[in-house]
Amino acid sequence: MMRDLGYDWRWVDKYAPNLLARGFEYQFEKCELVTAFELFEHFVEPGKEIEELFKVSENILFSTLLYDKEMCYKQFSEWWYYSPIAGQHVAFYSEKTCKYIAANYKVYYYHLDNDLHLFTKKNLSNRFIKFFFDKHFRWALQSYFYRKNLKNGKSLVDMEKMITLLKI
Question: Tell me: the pLDDT tens digits for 34-60?
Fold first, then answer.
């Protein structure tokens, strides 16, 4: 989807085969932004895994639910996200944990929206974050970039590359 909008996004996943982005694999070069959606809670060794992400970029946009004592669950085991039966969520974070990680890597931490978070070297104002994540502004911004990048998208170029690679 991001390539359709003209962004040169790449794929990487240590645990799953590349079924949808063949030819656009990440080649382990530095990049402007790492996105990690629903990934942090699967880290067996969070310190090492997060350190690897910071080697790639000083900007990490990620999603995960935070666990805090103020939640309505009396016991951690009652939290639906914990899910010990599935055994897939093995690392959990609180806002305090995220701030600790940010301090450790000398970056800022921003809790953007529900389960969306950002580590970055950029010092963003709270006013900017509140404005940028306003649902009406996001809709207008997405509409603008969709129209702007529709003609600059990578879909046709990607298709031509795949045809060449597959020799169709």
Answer: 999 888 988 999 999 999 999 999 999
Rounded CA separation 119/164 (Å): 38
Helix (H) or strand (E) holding 139: helix 135-150
Burial class of residue 6 (count of CB atoms within 10 Å of its CB; 0-12, 13-18, 19+): middle
Report residue 24 as tokens: 């656009």
What's the predicted TM-score (pTM) here?
Answer: 0.73
Whole-angstrom Cα distance, residue 106 to residue 127?
22
Cα 160 to Cα 71, 81, 90, 155, distances in angstroms: 51, 42, 41, 9
In angstroms, the CA 89 to CA 160 distance is 39
Per the rule left: phi > 0, alpha: psi between -120 and 50, beta: everything else, 124 is beta
Q: Which residues of 140-165 are buried (b: 16+ CB within 10 A; e: fewer)?
A: eeeeeeeeeeeeebbeeeeeeeeeee
Q: Are 6 and 147 in contact (CB under 8 A)?
A: no
